[in-house]
Design a protein that fits this description.
alpha/beta; eight-stranded parallel β-barrel; 40% helix
Length: 263
């Protein structure tokens, strides 16, 4: 099992700082939030991309994924969404990341319409992703937060370059049991994103194992060579404790989860 954390937990940090923290606390990789307010995003110049590659290589840390914000099920024209997907894929390829994270973002669209948007756009981008050695992962999130809803789209796409990012908190908040999520995402899973909170109504991030999200049940059955990524949402919860002080405990808890799961 390999372990990563998301830079969503390190607002304002540099690439070098994220890489150093990962190495210091025994993480194998980092999930990079790709947004204009972050150091790395689709508009980042090539020189800065190359510098980031050197920083992560020097730290011995993998860039697990580019966490983009494209909304593949959203209303509107296809071309801008597909263009955003392609730009994220190029960024991932330049940084040596195997995955790109995208959102559904279907809002209040009728389910068939939102699904159709997502299927068309993911299908359009899949061959480009495959040529670049990158896999697009649709996160269990917002309009399609269950494994059943996400898996329904991925079954229709049916391309190896498109898969799922299982955000365990979102499937849990939707009332879907971990076994049901796992079955719905079977054959599609890229990696798991884990986090912990105090309750369904108090979503301020806390340390792994300190809350009520069924992490052990979700991790059970994860491939022995898979990834677990801790997404600590400090960016959205400024009053939460700082992530660096929690990284050692978080890394230890990820290892315990993997051990309990028999992986």
């Amino acid at each position: 099992m390999k372990y990563a954390f998301s830079t969503l937990g390190l607002p304002g940090s540099t690439v070098a700082e994220a890489a150093a923290l990962a190495a210091e606390h025994g993480f194998d990789g980092v999930e990079l939030r790709a947004h204009a307010e972050e150091p790395l995003h689709p508009g980042t110049p090539n020189a800065d991309r190359a510098a980031a590659v050197r920083a992560f290589a020097a730290a011995g840390v993998t860039v697990l994924a580019i966490a983009g914000h494209a909304k593949v099920a959203a209303a509107g024209e296809d071309d801008p969404v597909v263009a955003e997907l392609l730009s994220l894929i190029v960024l991932a390829a330049d940084l040596g990341a195997p995955f790109v994270r995208v959102f559904p973002g279907g809002g209040r669209l009728p389910e068939p319409e939102a699904d159709a948007h997502a299927v068309r756009r993911l299908t359009a981008a899949a061959p480009f992703a495959e040529r670049h050695g990158v896999r697009i992962l649709l996160e269990t999130h917002d309009s399609h937060r269950t494994g059943a809803a996400t898996g329904r789209i991925l079954d229709r796409v049916g391309h190896p370059a498109v898969g799922a990012l299982w955000d365990v908190m979102h499937t849990w908040l939707a009332g879907e049991e971990p076994d049901a999520s796992r079955q719905a995402l079977a054959g599609h899973l890229g990696y798991l994103q884990v986090k912990d909170v105090a309750s369904t109504t108090e979503l301020t991030p806390i340390g792994l194992g300190e809350g009520v999200v069924p992490l052990a049940e979700a991790v059970a059955g994860t491939p022995a060579d898979g990834w677990l990524c801790w997404e600590y949402e400090k960016r959205w919860h400024p009053d939460a404790a700082e992530l660096p002080g929690r990284l050692s405990h978080g890394r230890e808890h990820l290892a315990r989860l993997a051990a309990v799961a028999g992986t």
